[in-house]
## 1
Amino acid sequence: MTDQTVLSFSSPSTAGDGVAVVFAEEGGKFTPAAQDLDKKTKGLLTKAAQITTFKGKKGTSVDVLAPQGVKFARIVLVGLGKPGEFVHEDWLNLGGTVRGKLSGREGAAAHVYLETVKGDVAPKDAASFALGAQLRDYKFDKYKSKSAKKADNGNDGKADDGKSLKKLVVHVADPRAAGQAFAPERAVADGVNLARDLVNEPANVLGPAEFAAKAKALSKAGVQVEVLSEAALKRLGMGALLAVGQGSERPSHVVVMQWKGAGAKGGAPVAIVGKGVTFDTGGISLKPAAGMEDMKGDMAGAACVVGLMLALAERKAKVNAVGVIGLIENMPSGGATRPGDVVEAMSGTTIEVLNTDAEGRMVLADCLWYTQDKFKPKAVINLATLTGAVMVALGKEHAGLFSNNDELSERLTVAGKETGEKLWRLPLGPKYDKLIDSKVADIKNTGGRWGGSISAAQFLQRFIKEGTPWAHLDVAGTAMASGDTDINRSWGSGFGVRLLDRLIRDHYER
Ligand code: BES
Ligand code: MN
Ligand code: ZN
């Protein structure tokens, strides 16, 4: 992530310079600030809207350059659509849209006059808007040399002398209240952007040890972080996780992150567990070459856990939460696990490894068991880029949700709708569970071609203790290469951070 625009809130005065952003609603009616600038420029906005047949439709805009009568160099008139029908996510997306329209050509400062035709926008909606702008602002360009960075500024490849937006001022009726509402959202933005950074980083730079070091850095924010060495994992008996990492030159690690925001009275923690395969070649069951580069993102579940822990700590969430991530590299080598090998997980369950490319479930098996054993959490949620099959089922619109608990499942689904990080529940059941029975061991690590995401989830459930509310999110389609949105232009989306932050806010904070 490179330098981000500094975001602040201010009162509604339209005396400013740089770029002004004002709004019109569906039908073309101007907001008060838009009317004000229209008057000051002798009807320039009205004329520009007429010429371009702008009618205030959501996502549309008119660019007015060098207006006379005001100090602004540019006024952007943006369509709101129907703000009367907006939900939280619409304000978020509007922030992203507006930030996108400011990319590359804007100079030092932009002033957004955030209001509807009727007037004020609520502080929490202004905060969502600002979060959307901040998330859209993210760029992963650390490996681009300076000249390339200049050209790649969102300005259709044209250089702009490296000018990029330094300052974004959101003008609202109550800037203090908006600022207060935005404080926790800023923490969430930091968490999402950290997760994106981790997912985007190539695997030569970010292996298990380097990832662990990034997690360790959360201690600065007040998170207790423990990095377990490979020797410690051996002592714990994590034979499933270690079998995945044994083909790599790079030692495996498990990182345990604790945020104790609710103190002793808060009781047992909620646990979040993440798959952190820093690169997945498939191992001896080698993947085909085409698209294998994407497997640098096979640690997106773990990245989400780290991003979430940062967000919770920065916003001082009143929750006890523990994050556990299994960090390994899945490589083929003379020392690698072979198809047919039998290994013993920490729980004592023996696993026949039929396919070394079904590695995520083996990593999670030991992380899930360890987490329940050590922390007796009140709920466990795991995230993993677990199966290609979940994309066949759900595309990139929804992550797969599997759960042994209807209440947890429902809460997650609602949090998904509210944040736009959508989930779709898929089934579990005894018939699916049978698919992973093994002839030579307790279970095998693949259940065949049909229902591949489900048999993977059944495998995980074999490591969930009776009575532990548990949910598994298969984020293979949503956490990386999930496509451009109003609030994300990065390959790694940071999926799950906002979702789980919302779940915790709504149900686990005291
Ligand atoms: N990391 C992959 C799943 C994946 C594929 C994530 C594409 C994102 C994009 C996982 O480890 C894997 O290889 N799963 C196999 C399981 C199979 C061997 C049973 C799969 O989905 O093909
Ligand atoms: Mn794999
Ligand atoms: Zn994998």
## 2
Amino acid sequence: MPVPASFNDITQDPSLENYIGWVWYEKEVQLPLRWLQDDLNTRVVLRFGSAHYYSIVWVNGVQVMEHEGGHLPFEADISSIIQGSPGIPCRITVALNNTLTPHTLPPGSIQYMNDKTRYPKNYFVQNIRFDFFNYAGIHRPVVLYTTPSVYIDDITVTTTSSESVAMVQYQVSVVGSTLYSLSLSLRDQEGKVVATGDGPSGELKVLNPNLWWPYLMHENPGYRYSLEVKMQAQANGALLEDVYTLPVGIRTIHVTSTQFLINGRPFYFHGVNKHEDADIRGKGFDWPLVVKDFNLLRWLGANSFRTSHYPYAEEIMDLCDAYGIVVIDECPGVGIKMSESFGNKSLQHHLVVMEELIRRDKNRPSVVMWSVANEPASELPPAGYYFKTVIAHTKALDPSRPVTFVTDANYALDHGAPYVDVICVNSYFSWYHDPGHLEVIPLQLTTQFENWYKTYQKPIIQSEYGADSVPGLHSDPPLMFSEEYQKAMLREYHSVFDKKRKEYVIGELIWNFADFMTNQGTTRVLGNKKGIFTRQRQPKSAAFVLRERYWKIANESSCLPPIIKSHALFLK
Ligand code: GCB
């Protein structure tokens, strides 16, 4: 089985496609001798970018870690197992289980079908309440890396700035000894040192800073300084040195009752929702696909996306930082519908997942807001305490960013909305409601916005809207599933956005960037077809409508001279 990849679509075996339960991976690697014997001050770490969902890992038969949940990294120090026996290969064994329970994220449940007249013995299905195929496997790269035995374990950076001076606050944690020294230097993109510091925490002052700006908001978006953190320690009679270089974007975020400000300027999210999804590889990380998608975002004039409905690969996040693509970073809290999923056990796990996500992404300038869930049953009374707690925990871990969750509940019944900074609302007027009736959109969408704003006086993002279209299916007048219908639906939504973005609507994210695989069902034709691109990344007619719109908005709101599409300020 290739890694990284989902295992589901790789073979011709239909039972693997929908397999639920344990799978095993094993690989032997030969490690460099110097890791094993020459230098016992070397710490060897085994790291998984992500694996779905519950993982147990052994090295040479010794269990080294277990981890609950996909989409986030986990790692273990394996030095004590491999050191001292040079010449023996390092055997890595992984057991993965993709069974979901009411307390996992996302939640799910196993249902045994006990009617012997209709189902074979022990027949069961896994019920999920989310709309993407539940791919499983080792989805992201697995690496072995080394550090000295005293090492930099974590760095946290936050930034504040005015026009002429910025402050970079840092905190460094070192593990392995209390006797160490730390020196820091911040370099600009020319390599010039602009500030220096020492010690585990402090502040660096940057005069006339180059701020991190979103794509299409500045002629040099995604500007990042390099923070070099150097640690020196004495251990076992040797001088140990660990150096880590962290890209740092200087930018500020503020939310008012009507605006989302980046560096003090109003930011309008004109972007997409995505999925990690593709033919054959499923959710497996794939560089060509990732780079293709960034080129399509650039072409589209999209300045943002939401990581619907789980954290995306770190490599993708790196590109967002570098190109200035603004991210709403969502945890895997999707399909929280059962009342058991609002209990203490689920809540504790949700808090841990937020800790893992924030630890991974806290230093990313592209991440401007955390989303703790998508379309939970937030009208259930326990949702109030649940979201109050998850959001308070998230804010305590990271006071620098606003927090939201994405709702499709009725504005008057939503128990989680009081705790969010920005209202993110999904609606599918003329699709799931009043199918075929495009003419209801203006009234229903206007009412939706007005109700939410009247109740909360918080800015609103239309975090999903869309219609399926089967590429190549045409109909005039527009009928559902044709490319014309998808375009017509977009235009109806856009006319309302254009009125309300003058007031308090701060963004629109199409559902979805590309078609993606789902469970089989009577409303899905080889997956969800709400993409403006096909699963193979070819544009449908709707992509051109959106492209015209996004470039128009970018030119209206930019302080720059008109930006010509062919000279997009991207991928320089
Ligand atoms: C939604 C969900 C999204 C689905 C979409 C649809 O509200 O958030 O995951 O794929 O609707 O197309 O049904």
